[in-house]
Amino acid sequence: MNVLPRILIFGRIGQVGYELRRTLASLGPLTCVDYPEVDLTDPDSIRRWIRDSKPSIIVNAAAYTAVDKAETEFSLAQKINGIAPGIMAEEAKKTGALLVHYSTDYVYDGTKTSPYTEKDATGPLGAYGRSKLAGDQAILAVDGNHLIFRLCWVYGARGNNFLLTMTRLARERETLRVVADQFGSPTWSRMIAETTALALKQVIDEHDFLSQRGMYHLCASGQTSWHGFAKAIVDSLPIEHRKCREVQSIPTADYPTPAKRPAYSVMSCEKLERVFNLRLPSWEASLRDVIEELNH
Length: 296
Description:
The chain has a domain at about 5-160 and about 185-220 and about 270-275: 3-Layer(aba) Sandwich (Rossmann fold). It has ten helices and twelve strands. It has helices spanning about 15-25, 45-55, 75-95, 125-140, 160-170, 190-205, 210, 225-235, 270-275, 285-295; strands spanning about 5-10, 30-35, 55-60, 100-105, 145-150, 155, 175-180, 185, 185-190, 215, 225, 245-250. It has a six-stranded parallel β-sheet with strand order 2-1-3-4-5-10, sandwiched between helices. Strand 3 (about 55-60), helix 3 and strand 4 form a beta-alpha-beta unit. The longest helix has 22 residues, at about 75-95. It is globular, with a radius of gyration of 19 Å. It starts with 6 loop residues before the first strand and ends with a helix. The mean pLDDT is about 95.
């Protein structure tokens, strides 16, 4: 009889971590931690949790995600996003464990006009993207068993995200003004967790960390702008539940932020779909599912 793998999840209360607690529960016993139980700025705290829980799979769903604040808090972002994943990778390699880590589309510079592949050059525009890229590079440098999933425009039914902000503003304002010249693929946190579980089940069943390890893009299929996403959100809300009657499109220049964002961060998931024989849903289909859940 096969022994179920012990799984350690860092970041249990985040958007993705919350969903992972449900989707990974069927794969093996879970240990789920978050701040302040674990301090990702403290290497000893990270090592202690890994050594005490003795996982065969470590899932790092924790991150510093304040994109604009990272411009003035780069040291903190770097400790959590850049250094901590490397420490996890070192500990995983010592015991032959698999590290699952989540990265971001913000490692790219946004100058392409066709979907980014895993082989494309990186060039983050801001401190947040630089810190996340440093984490990816730290894991790759350790060269242990790893799955790095780069995500795009993550949202869900809980936490702080674009969907919940737009649904709140749609109830409060008649007009919303949203950037229309940045393009990506809105990706539901639950879809990320479910895809992770499906990929991990294959790795576990085949007892083969080595051949499937590597970097993968994981996001919904299709693409839209922030304006297109906002309009789809508002249009999906019952008319009696919203005050908003118009979603205006504006250029990035009219909505200045401390951190520069990539104008185009659509990613191709062909590699993930091919290696794990998966089909990822469209962003529109996922949005319908989330809205339905919010309305019940």
